Fold DNA-directed DNA polymerase family B exonuclease domain-containing protein.
Amino acid sequence: MTGRWKIGKFKCKPTVKKYAFEFADVPSEAEYLEVRYSVAFPALPTNLSGETFSRVFGANTSFLENLILDLRLRGPCWLELTGAVPLQPQISWCKVDYDFSYQKPNSIMKLSDAIRARTAVADDTRLPSLPPPPPLRLVALDIKSVVRRETNSSEIIAVGLLIDNHCYLDQPAGSKTFQSHYLVLSPPKGSVLPYDLSKKLPSWGAQYQPPKSTAATGETTNSAFSGGVDIEPNERALLGRLLTRIHRLDPDLIVGHDLWGYQLDLLLHRLNAHKVPHWHRISRLRRSAGYSMIFSRGWFMRNAMPGRLICDSRVSAKELIRSRTYNLSELAHQVLPSNQQQKRQIPPCVRAQFSQSIVASDGGGGGEESLSGIDLEVDSADLRCLFDSSAHIKDLIDFCLSDALLVLRLVHQLQVPLTPHHHHTIHPLISHNFSLRYFDSKNLTMCQNTDVPFSFHGNMLIV
Protein backbone atom coordinates (compact mmCIF):
# COMPACT_ATOMS: atom_id res chain seq x y z
CA MET A 1 0.00 0.00 0.00
CA THR A 2 2.87 2.39 0.69
CA GLY A 3 4.10 1.91 -2.85
CA ARG A 4 0.65 2.60 -4.28
CA TRP A 5 0.27 5.84 -2.34
CA LYS A 6 3.97 6.79 -2.66
CA ILE A 7 4.73 6.90 1.06
CA GLY A 8 8.48 6.37 1.25
CA LYS A 9 9.08 6.40 5.02
CA PHE A 10 6.77 5.95 7.98
CA LYS A 11 6.57 4.83 11.60
CA CYS A 12 3.90 2.58 13.06
CA LYS A 13 2.97 0.85 16.31
CA PRO A 14 -0.04 -1.06 17.70
CA THR A 15 -2.15 0.93 20.16
CA VAL A 16 -5.51 0.68 21.91
CA LYS A 17 -7.96 3.49 21.19
CA LYS A 18 -11.58 4.28 22.03
CA TYR A 19 -14.29 5.31 19.59
CA ALA A 20 -17.57 7.14 20.31
CA PHE A 21 -18.79 8.59 17.03
CA GLU A 22 -21.17 7.89 14.13
CA PHE A 23 -20.12 4.50 12.73
CA ALA A 24 -22.09 1.69 14.43
CA ASP A 25 -19.83 -1.10 13.12
CA VAL A 26 -16.74 0.34 14.88
CA PRO A 27 -16.18 -1.12 18.37
CA SER A 28 -16.03 1.26 21.32
CA GLU A 29 -12.51 0.04 22.14
CA ALA A 30 -10.13 -1.91 19.91
CA GLU A 31 -6.49 -2.27 18.89
CA TYR A 32 -5.39 0.01 16.05
CA LEU A 33 -2.23 0.36 14.00
CA GLU A 34 -1.06 3.94 14.50
CA VAL A 35 0.91 5.19 11.49
CA ARG A 36 2.77 8.48 11.19
CA TYR A 37 4.78 9.87 8.32
CA SER A 38 6.02 13.17 6.91
CA VAL A 39 3.66 15.75 5.45
CA ALA A 40 5.80 15.59 2.32
CA PHE A 41 3.89 12.42 1.38
CA PRO A 42 0.23 12.43 0.30
CA ALA A 43 -2.58 11.76 2.79
CA LEU A 44 -4.51 8.52 2.56
CA PRO A 45 -8.19 8.64 1.48
CA THR A 46 -10.61 8.62 4.41
CA ASN A 47 -12.74 5.92 2.75
CA LEU A 48 -9.82 3.54 2.22
CA SER A 49 -10.17 -0.15 3.23
CA GLY A 50 -8.24 -3.35 2.61
CA GLU A 51 -7.92 -7.05 3.39
CA THR A 52 -6.44 -6.53 6.86
CA PHE A 53 -8.22 -3.31 7.88
CA SER A 54 -11.70 -1.89 7.47
CA ARG A 55 -11.34 1.86 8.03
CA VAL A 56 -8.80 4.67 8.16
CA PHE A 57 -9.21 7.31 10.86
CA GLY A 58 -7.36 10.60 11.17
CA ALA A 59 -6.10 10.71 7.59
CA ASN A 60 -6.92 14.40 7.37
CA THR A 61 -5.85 15.25 10.92
CA SER A 62 -3.74 18.39 11.04
CA PHE A 63 -0.36 18.68 12.72
CA LEU A 64 -1.84 21.08 15.24
CA GLU A 65 -4.51 18.58 16.24
CA ASN A 66 -1.87 15.88 16.80
CA LEU A 67 0.11 18.36 18.90
CA ILE A 68 -2.94 19.21 21.04
CA LEU A 69 -3.80 15.55 21.60
CA ASP A 70 -0.23 14.52 22.39
CA LEU A 71 0.18 17.30 24.96
CA ARG A 72 -3.37 16.84 26.30
CA LEU A 73 -4.04 20.55 26.11
CA ARG A 74 -7.61 21.35 27.17
CA GLY A 75 -7.70 25.10 26.89
CA PRO A 76 -5.56 28.26 26.85
CA CYS A 77 -2.35 27.80 28.80
CA TRP A 78 1.29 28.78 28.92
CA LEU A 79 3.72 26.54 27.04
CA GLU A 80 7.44 26.13 27.62
CA LEU A 81 9.52 25.68 24.46
CA THR A 82 13.14 24.54 24.50
CA GLY A 83 15.69 24.41 21.72
CA ALA A 84 13.98 27.07 19.56
CA VAL A 85 16.16 29.01 17.11
CA PRO A 86 15.30 32.09 15.02
CA LEU A 87 13.92 31.21 11.58
CA GLN A 88 15.10 32.93 8.43
CA PRO A 89 13.54 33.75 6.04
CA GLN A 90 10.39 34.41 8.02
CA ILE A 91 7.14 32.68 7.07
CA SER A 92 4.91 35.02 9.05
CA TRP A 93 4.40 38.76 9.54
CA CYS A 94 5.30 38.50 13.23
CA LYS A 95 8.34 40.35 14.51
CA VAL A 96 10.26 37.10 15.12
CA ASP A 97 9.81 33.52 13.86
CA TYR A 98 11.27 30.55 15.75
CA ASP A 99 11.90 27.00 14.62
CA PHE A 100 12.19 23.99 16.89
CA SER A 101 11.82 20.22 16.69
CA TYR A 102 8.55 19.00 18.13
CA GLN A 103 9.77 15.39 18.01
CA LYS A 104 12.56 15.94 20.54
CA PRO A 105 11.63 14.80 24.08
CA ASN A 106 10.28 17.60 26.29
CA SER A 107 10.86 20.22 23.59
CA ILE A 108 7.36 21.56 24.24
CA MET A 109 5.49 21.21 27.53
CA LYS A 110 2.73 22.88 29.45
CA LEU A 111 4.38 25.34 31.80
CA SER A 112 2.43 23.92 34.74
CA ASP A 113 3.82 20.43 34.00
CA ALA A 114 7.35 21.78 33.60
CA ILE A 115 7.15 23.63 36.94
CA ARG A 116 5.73 20.54 38.64
CA ALA A 117 8.56 18.40 37.27
CA ARG A 118 11.24 20.84 38.42
CA THR A 119 9.79 21.15 41.90
CA ALA A 120 9.61 17.35 42.17
CA VAL A 121 13.30 17.06 41.33
CA ALA A 122 14.14 19.76 43.87
CA ASP A 123 11.93 18.02 46.47
CA ASP A 124 9.98 21.24 47.00
CA THR A 125 6.26 21.02 47.72
CA ARG A 126 5.60 24.70 47.03
CA LEU A 127 4.50 25.28 43.42
CA PRO A 128 5.18 28.78 42.07
CA SER A 129 2.12 30.50 40.62
CA LEU A 130 1.73 30.75 36.85
CA PRO A 131 1.93 34.20 35.26
CA PRO A 132 -1.43 35.76 34.37
CA PRO A 133 -2.60 35.82 30.74
CA PRO A 134 -1.12 38.76 28.83
CA PRO A 135 -3.30 41.58 27.47
CA LEU A 136 -4.42 41.39 23.87
CA ARG A 137 -4.55 44.20 21.36
CA LEU A 138 -8.16 44.55 20.23
CA VAL A 139 -9.28 46.44 17.13
CA ALA A 140 -12.93 47.28 16.46
CA LEU A 141 -13.43 47.59 12.70
CA ASP A 142 -16.19 49.16 10.63
CA ILE A 143 -16.33 49.45 6.83
CA LYS A 144 -18.45 51.84 4.77
CA SER A 145 -19.02 51.23 1.08
CA VAL A 146 -21.04 52.34 -1.93
CA VAL A 147 -22.34 50.36 -4.91
CA ARG A 148 -21.07 51.10 -8.41
CA ARG A 149 -24.13 51.10 -10.63
CA GLU A 150 -22.23 50.37 -13.82
CA THR A 151 -20.58 47.19 -12.45
CA ASN A 152 -23.03 46.38 -9.63
CA SER A 153 -20.05 45.90 -7.28
CA SER A 154 -19.28 47.47 -3.92
CA GLU A 155 -16.49 49.99 -3.38
CA ILE A 156 -15.00 50.75 0.04
CA ILE A 157 -14.99 54.47 0.91
CA ALA A 158 -14.02 54.44 4.61
CA VAL A 159 -12.62 52.07 7.25
CA GLY A 160 -12.61 53.01 10.93
CA LEU A 161 -10.58 51.38 13.69
CA LEU A 162 -10.84 51.73 17.47
CA ILE A 163 -7.76 50.34 19.25
CA ASP A 164 -7.66 48.85 22.74
CA ASN A 165 -4.11 47.88 23.74
CA HIS A 166 -5.07 46.30 27.05
CA CYS A 167 -7.90 43.84 26.46
CA TYR A 168 -8.02 40.96 28.96
CA LEU A 169 -10.08 37.95 27.94
CA ASP A 170 -10.49 36.82 31.55
CA GLN A 171 -11.65 40.17 32.95
CA PRO A 172 -14.63 42.45 32.32
CA ALA A 173 -13.99 45.65 30.40
CA GLY A 174 -13.07 48.81 32.23
CA SER A 175 -14.62 52.25 31.85
CA LYS A 176 -12.37 53.12 28.92
CA THR A 177 -13.03 50.74 26.03
CA PHE A 178 -10.33 52.06 23.66
CA GLN A 179 -7.23 54.27 23.77
CA SER A 180 -6.92 55.52 20.18
CA HIS A 181 -8.70 55.55 16.86
CA TYR A 182 -7.81 55.60 13.17
CA LEU A 183 -9.81 56.17 10.00
CA VAL A 184 -8.86 56.13 6.35
CA LEU A 185 -11.22 57.29 3.61
CA SER A 186 -11.20 57.91 -0.12
CA PRO A 187 -13.78 59.31 -2.53
CA PRO A 188 -15.74 56.78 -4.62
CA LYS A 189 -15.06 56.61 -8.33
CA GLY A 190 -16.61 59.62 -10.04
CA SER A 191 -16.52 61.79 -6.91
CA VAL A 192 -13.92 64.27 -5.70
CA LEU A 193 -12.94 65.51 -2.28
CA PRO A 194 -14.14 68.99 -1.21
CA TYR A 195 -11.57 71.67 -1.99
CA ASP A 196 -11.49 73.02 1.57
CA LEU A 197 -11.17 69.66 3.33
CA SER A 198 -7.47 70.00 4.16
CA LYS A 199 -8.16 73.30 5.91
CA LYS A 200 -11.28 72.14 7.72
CA LEU A 201 -9.85 68.89 9.18
CA PRO A 202 -7.50 70.58 11.74
CA SER A 203 -10.23 73.01 12.81
CA TRP A 204 -12.57 70.20 13.92
CA GLY A 205 -10.25 68.96 16.66
CA ALA A 206 -7.20 66.76 17.22
CA GLN A 207 -9.17 63.56 16.57
CA TYR A 208 -9.75 64.61 12.94
CA GLN A 209 -6.18 65.56 12.12
CA PRO A 210 -3.92 63.25 10.10
CA PRO A 211 -1.56 60.98 12.06
CA LYS A 212 1.82 62.39 13.03
CA SER A 213 3.50 60.37 10.28
CA THR A 214 1.71 59.96 6.94
CA ALA A 215 2.58 58.78 3.47
CA ALA A 216 4.59 61.94 2.79
CA THR A 217 6.96 61.52 5.73
CA GLY A 218 7.00 57.76 6.20
CA GLU A 219 5.50 55.83 9.10
CA THR A 220 7.24 54.69 12.23
CA THR A 221 6.30 51.97 14.68
CA ASN A 222 5.06 54.51 17.24
CA SER A 223 2.83 56.24 14.70
CA ALA A 224 0.73 53.10 14.40
CA PHE A 225 -0.73 53.80 17.84
CA SER A 226 -1.55 57.47 17.23
CA GLY A 227 -5.07 58.40 16.26
CA GLY A 228 -6.15 60.44 13.29
CA VAL A 229 -7.74 60.48 9.85
CA ASP A 230 -5.93 59.67 6.61
CA ILE A 231 -7.27 60.83 3.24
CA GLU A 232 -6.37 58.78 0.16
CA PRO A 233 -7.11 59.54 -3.51
CA ASN A 234 -8.71 56.18 -4.41
CA GLU A 235 -9.81 52.80 -3.07
CA ARG A 236 -6.56 51.01 -3.90
CA ALA A 237 -4.52 53.54 -1.92
CA LEU A 238 -7.05 53.26 0.93
CA LEU A 239 -6.60 49.49 1.08
CA GLY A 240 -2.81 49.79 1.02
CA ARG A 241 -2.89 52.32 3.85
CA LEU A 242 -5.23 50.10 5.87
CA LEU A 243 -2.97 47.06 5.46
CA THR A 244 0.03 49.10 6.61
CA ARG A 245 -1.85 50.25 9.69
CA ILE A 246 -3.09 46.75 10.58
CA HIS A 247 0.36 45.29 10.05
CA ARG A 248 1.95 47.84 12.39
CA LEU A 249 -0.81 47.52 14.99
CA ASP A 250 -0.60 43.71 14.78
CA PRO A 251 -3.97 43.15 16.53
CA ASP A 252 -4.66 39.87 18.30
CA LEU A 253 -8.44 40.28 18.16
CA ILE A 254 -10.60 42.00 15.51
CA VAL A 255 -14.24 42.69 16.36
CA GLY A 256 -17.01 43.99 14.13
CA HIS A 257 -20.65 43.56 13.23
CA ASP A 258 -21.49 41.08 10.47
CA LEU A 259 -17.81 40.44 9.78
CA TRP A 260 -18.35 36.89 8.57
CA GLY A 261 -21.52 37.72 6.69
CA TYR A 262 -20.40 40.79 4.74
CA GLN A 263 -17.55 43.03 5.87
CA LEU A 264 -14.59 40.61 5.69
CA ASP A 265 -15.90 39.18 2.44
CA LEU A 266 -16.07 42.69 0.98
CA LEU A 267 -12.59 43.61 2.25
CA LEU A 268 -10.95 40.46 0.87
CA HIS A 269 -12.80 40.80 -2.44
CA ARG A 270 -11.62 44.38 -2.94
CA LEU A 271 -8.04 43.48 -1.98
CA ASN A 272 -8.14 40.75 -4.61
CA ALA A 273 -9.83 42.95 -7.22
CA HIS A 274 -7.15 45.64 -6.92
CA LYS A 275 -4.33 43.08 -6.57
CA VAL A 276 -2.97 44.98 -3.57
CA PRO A 277 0.59 43.80 -2.83
CA HIS A 278 1.04 41.70 0.29
CA TRP A 279 -2.70 41.57 0.95
CA HIS A 280 -2.01 38.83 3.52
CA ARG A 281 -0.67 41.46 5.95
CA ILE A 282 -4.23 41.48 7.19
CA SER A 283 -3.31 38.13 8.80
CA ARG A 284 -0.12 36.92 10.47
CA LEU A 285 0.88 34.33 7.88
CA ARG A 286 2.60 35.15 4.62
CA ARG A 287 0.90 33.80 1.50
CA SER A 288 1.97 33.17 -2.08
CA ALA A 289 0.87 35.59 -4.80
CA GLY A 290 -1.82 33.31 -6.23
CA TYR A 291 -3.09 31.89 -2.96
CA SER A 292 -6.56 33.45 -3.21
CA MET A 293 -7.12 31.95 -6.66
CA ILE A 294 -6.43 28.34 -5.67
CA PHE A 295 -9.22 27.60 -3.22
CA SER A 296 -12.97 27.96 -3.11
CA ARG A 297 -14.52 31.11 -1.70
CA GLY A 298 -15.83 29.39 1.46
CA TRP A 299 -12.48 27.78 2.29
CA PHE A 300 -10.63 31.01 1.54
CA MET A 301 -12.89 33.04 3.85
CA ARG A 302 -12.35 30.63 6.74
CA ASN A 303 -8.57 30.59 6.32
CA ALA A 304 -7.75 34.10 5.11
CA MET A 305 -6.74 35.53 8.50
CA PRO A 306 -4.68 32.95 10.42
CA GLY A 307 -3.11 34.22 13.63
CA ARG A 308 -5.87 36.73 14.40
CA LEU A 309 -9.02 36.09 16.39
CA ILE A 310 -12.22 37.26 14.72
CA CYS A 311 -15.23 38.19 16.83
CA ASP A 312 -18.48 38.94 15.00
CA SER A 313 -20.94 40.67 17.35
CA ARG A 314 -23.85 39.51 15.19
CA VAL A 315 -22.84 35.83 15.49
CA SER A 316 -22.11 36.15 19.21
CA ALA A 317 -25.46 37.82 19.82
CA LYS A 318 -27.28 34.96 18.08
CA GLU A 319 -25.78 32.60 20.64
CA LEU A 320 -26.45 34.72 23.70
CA ILE A 321 -29.75 36.57 23.20
CA ARG A 322 -32.94 36.49 21.15
CA SER A 323 -33.65 39.22 18.64
CA ARG A 324 -35.74 39.69 15.52
CA THR A 325 -33.03 40.66 13.04
CA TYR A 326 -29.75 41.04 15.02
CA ASN A 327 -29.10 44.29 13.17
CA LEU A 328 -26.80 46.81 14.82
CA SER A 329 -29.50 49.35 15.73
CA GLU A 330 -31.79 46.72 17.19
CA LEU A 331 -29.05 45.05 19.24
CA ALA A 332 -27.83 48.40 20.57
CA HIS A 333 -31.36 49.30 21.68
CA GLN A 334 -31.93 45.87 23.21
CA VAL A 335 -28.57 45.23 24.91
CA LEU A 336 -26.93 48.53 25.83
CA PRO A 337 -27.92 50.35 29.05
CA SER A 338 -30.18 53.35 28.63
CA ASN A 339 -27.52 55.72 29.95
CA GLN A 340 -25.23 54.93 26.99
CA GLN A 341 -25.58 56.32 23.47
CA GLN A 342 -27.69 53.62 21.83
CA LYS A 343 -28.48 55.01 18.39
CA ARG A 344 -26.30 55.08 15.31
CA GLN A 345 -25.10 58.56 14.35
CA ILE A 346 -26.62 58.47 10.87
CA PRO A 347 -25.71 61.57 8.81
CA PRO A 348 -28.62 63.85 7.92
CA CYS A 349 -28.08 63.54 4.17
CA VAL A 350 -28.29 59.74 4.50
CA ARG A 351 -31.34 59.93 6.74
CA ALA A 352 -33.01 62.12 4.10
CA GLN A 353 -33.04 59.10 1.78
CA PHE A 354 -35.17 57.07 4.23
CA SER A 355 -38.77 56.27 3.45
CA GLN A 356 -41.36 58.46 5.18
CA SER A 357 -42.57 55.59 7.41
CA ILE A 358 -39.08 55.00 8.77
CA VAL A 359 -38.49 58.71 9.37
CA ALA A 360 -41.77 59.04 11.26
CA SER A 361 -41.24 55.96 13.43
CA ASP A 362 -37.64 56.85 14.15
CA GLY A 363 -38.50 60.39 15.12
CA GLY A 364 -41.15 59.14 17.50
CA GLY A 365 -38.96 56.53 19.13
CA GLY A 366 -40.50 53.53 17.41
CA GLY A 367 -40.09 49.92 18.43
CA GLU A 368 -38.14 47.01 16.98
CA GLU A 369 -39.77 47.21 13.54
CA SER A 370 -38.58 50.80 13.04
CA LEU A 371 -35.10 49.91 14.31
CA SER A 372 -34.86 47.02 11.84
CA GLY A 373 -36.09 49.31 9.08
CA ILE A 374 -33.46 51.93 9.89
CA ASP A 375 -30.61 49.47 9.32
CA LEU A 376 -32.17 48.26 6.09
CA GLU A 377 -32.43 51.86 4.89
CA VAL A 378 -28.83 52.62 5.87
CA ASP A 379 -27.52 49.52 4.08
CA SER A 380 -29.34 50.50 0.89
CA ALA A 381 -28.57 54.25 1.09
CA ASP A 382 -26.18 55.93 -1.34
CA LEU A 383 -23.30 57.32 0.73
CA ARG A 384 -21.91 59.38 -2.16
CA CYS A 385 -23.78 62.36 -0.74
CA LEU A 386 -21.25 62.38 2.11
CA PHE A 387 -18.57 63.71 -0.29
CA ASP A 388 -20.56 66.80 -1.32
CA SER A 389 -19.00 69.04 1.32
CA SER A 390 -16.45 69.03 4.14
CA ALA A 391 -19.23 69.03 6.71
CA HIS A 392 -20.57 65.81 5.20
CA ILE A 393 -17.07 64.30 5.33
CA LYS A 394 -17.08 65.02 9.06
CA ASP A 395 -20.45 63.24 9.30
CA LEU A 396 -18.95 60.23 7.50
CA ILE A 397 -16.02 60.07 9.94
CA ASP A 398 -18.36 60.28 12.94
CA PHE A 399 -20.73 57.73 11.38
CA CYS A 400 -17.99 55.13 10.79
CA LEU A 401 -16.25 55.50 14.16
CA SER A 402 -19.51 55.66 16.13
CA ASP A 403 -20.63 52.36 14.56
CA ALA A 404 -17.32 50.81 15.58
CA LEU A 405 -17.88 52.13 19.12
CA LEU A 406 -21.39 50.64 19.21
CA VAL A 407 -19.94 47.26 18.23
CA LEU A 408 -17.27 47.53 20.92
CA ARG A 409 -19.87 48.38 23.55
CA LEU A 410 -22.04 45.48 22.41
CA VAL A 411 -19.16 43.01 22.66
CA HIS A 412 -18.30 44.14 26.19
CA GLN A 413 -21.93 44.26 27.31
CA LEU A 414 -22.50 40.71 26.04
CA GLN A 415 -19.25 39.74 27.82
CA VAL A 416 -17.99 38.01 24.69
CA PRO A 417 -14.30 38.39 25.78
CA LEU A 418 -15.09 36.16 28.78
CA THR A 419 -15.80 33.15 26.54
CA PRO A 420 -12.38 31.61 27.38
CA HIS A 421 -13.99 30.60 30.69
CA HIS A 422 -15.87 27.87 28.80
CA HIS A 423 -13.07 26.83 26.42
CA HIS A 424 -12.50 23.80 28.60
CA THR A 425 -16.12 22.66 28.24
CA ILE A 426 -17.28 24.00 24.88
CA HIS A 427 -14.40 24.01 22.41
CA PRO A 428 -10.63 24.30 22.83
CA LEU A 429 -10.33 26.47 19.71
CA ILE A 430 -10.58 30.11 20.83
CA SER A 431 -11.39 31.44 17.36
CA HIS A 432 -14.14 28.82 17.04
CA ASN A 433 -15.72 29.91 20.32
CA PHE A 434 -15.95 33.50 19.08
CA SER A 435 -18.00 32.30 16.08
CA LEU A 436 -20.02 29.43 17.58
CA ARG A 437 -23.67 29.11 16.65
CA TYR A 438 -26.06 28.31 19.49
CA PHE A 439 -26.59 24.70 18.46
CA ASP A 440 -22.81 24.16 18.07
CA SER A 441 -22.25 25.45 21.61
CA LYS A 442 -25.03 23.29 23.03
CA ASN A 443 -23.89 20.11 21.30
CA LEU A 444 -20.21 20.63 22.13
CA THR A 445 -21.03 21.31 25.76
CA MET A 446 -22.95 18.04 25.97
CA CYS A 447 -20.33 16.00 24.16
CA GLN A 448 -17.31 17.54 25.94
CA ASN A 449 -15.42 17.22 22.68
CA THR A 450 -11.74 18.05 23.12
CA ASP A 451 -10.39 16.42 19.98
CA VAL A 452 -10.45 19.57 17.85
CA PRO A 453 -7.36 21.77 17.74
CA PHE A 454 -7.08 25.42 18.67
CA SER A 455 -4.50 28.04 17.85
CA PHE A 456 -3.91 31.41 19.44
CA HIS A 457 -1.01 33.81 19.21
CA GLY A 458 -0.62 36.79 21.51
CA ASN A 459 2.15 38.70 23.23
CA MET A 460 4.42 36.05 24.77
CA LEU A 461 1.56 33.53 24.92
CA ILE A 462 0.88 30.52 22.72
CA VAL A 463 -2.28 28.59 23.48
Notes: The two ends are 37 Å apart (CA to CA). The CA atoms of residues 357 and 370 lie 8 Å apart.
